[in-house]
## 1
Amino acid sequence: MIFRRVFAFLIRLVVFLIGTIFAIGLLLLGFVLTLSFVVWALLRGWRPQVQRFKVDPRQPFGGFTRRGPAVDPANIVDVEAREVPTAPPRLDRS
């Protein structure tokens, strides 16, 4: 009788420890992947952007709307269009 209870407790403890190790492993994997993506983006010259969301509880489904910095018209740069000269004819490789 006592052997069964101890054995059941040990099985539960082992299953709990395996689940805990698995969950911690998944968290570490997500952290490493996120960190590697940020480092890769910075090395490539991209700036990682954080997505921000505003939740309005008065709206249906929480009123998820995207919130971020507004575009300032002073930051928009117009460029002068110029015509690209035609390329010289290519060799026929057929």
## 2
Amino acid sequence: MSSSISFSHRHKDFEITLSEDGALELYLDGCLRKKRERGTKEPQYVWTNVELEWEEHHYIEARYWASIDDLQITVNGTPLLKSSFKN
């Protein structure tokens, strides 16, 4: 069973999903933007660059350490959310 965490940033809806096979996925407004298969290296990392109002760019990053179930999400390098998938 896959797990997901949803959040909003500046009127955009994001979702980070951990699939049954361990792939980390980043969705923006319901569209898959990045996917990273589970591998031997940690953290798994997905990102997207989003242009919001008037060429204002926001770099959304998600890093996931499966060994300790730690998900960290940043916007332009500033922490936004810290969570886990196995609450």
## 3
Amino acid sequence: MKGLLTLLLFVFVITPLWSQVDSTLFRRVNKDTSKLLLNMDAVYNRPFLSVGKTPVALGGYVEANWQHLGTDGLTEGHQFQMKRLTLFVASGISRRIKFLSEIEFEGGTKEINIEFASIDFEFHPLLNFRGGVVMNPIGAFNQNHDGPKWEFIDRPTSATQLLPATWSNVGFGIYGKKYSKNWAYAYELYLTNGFDDQIISNAQNKTYLPATKLNRDRFEESFNGEPLITAKIALRNKKVGELGISYMGGVYNKFQMDGFTLDKKRRVDVWALDFNTELPILKTYLVGEWAFVNVDVPDTYTQQYGNKQSGGFLDVVQPVIRTNIFNFNKSVVNVVCRFEYVDWNVGTFKETSGNMSEDFVSIVPGISWRPTPLTVLRLNYRYNWITDILGNPPSKTAGFQFGFSSYF
């Protein structure tokens, strides 16, 4: 509530005062395009607005949309959604010490989250220290998730439900980068607070990693005193693209209390592979990610709680028009398509050896228009197939979505 009141104070009191300031004092802090950029650079690779010579810069983005979806002939009709409003505050404390925070308001103000709030100490290009609320670099989307960077209204299902998108924790770590002609090499390594037993004890009645995001106490204390390890290495070639391999793992259950053993240490381990490239001549942009999840589920749980999961997505973005549209000189129209797949329960039934078929399949074709590089209007058609664990005929969801996302 205090955070909301502060935001309202800023909007209704400070903003009118700023409107009286000479506009020449404001300057846009542009993105760094001087070097090969990696997904790990996304946290700072955003447009900011600075006032005069003040050390603080502000920024953010907004997303809103309309949709009309139906599942097996049933629909809730026309729905208008305010997906999210995200605010950035950055500060150059000194030449090699900087701070950035990212605060997100989802569903109006139904959820208010601190997604990033860290100080970086730069000692050497290959050795930098980061501490605070850090974003665990599992896959690529978790770090590079800003709405205006994507041609689709919904975030990938594998990134939001298989993996916990915008997953961040309190902790510390190191990272580094090295450039050599057409190559860029990078690594990240963090120790943070981690998951809890909600990943198998939740309202979804299945193994579900994002359920831990409901635990607000993770920003103040560890659920079991065991750190979560997140590590990533990335390699980028100017002509080929970027390849990233990441790992995240740790103990998720409370295995002891007051010196008494409650259970053995049960682990959750996640591996992810991500890749993006731009094909020559046609300038087709491809970006994809695939993740593998392993969870040590107690034998007392039924088989609907899978101990192995996998899934991913592939986006294909093809620019078809680059011209002046409605006096927007840098307009780009794209034809796009997203392919998604998630297997919530990899394996077979113990009794029959039959396949467990709890699968999600989706295809999302669409068109996007970028009047400027920082703003995108999107029209998507979504078609989902969802199969239950017994392999019954899938339920089908289909419909149109239209919306926009823009930095400001």
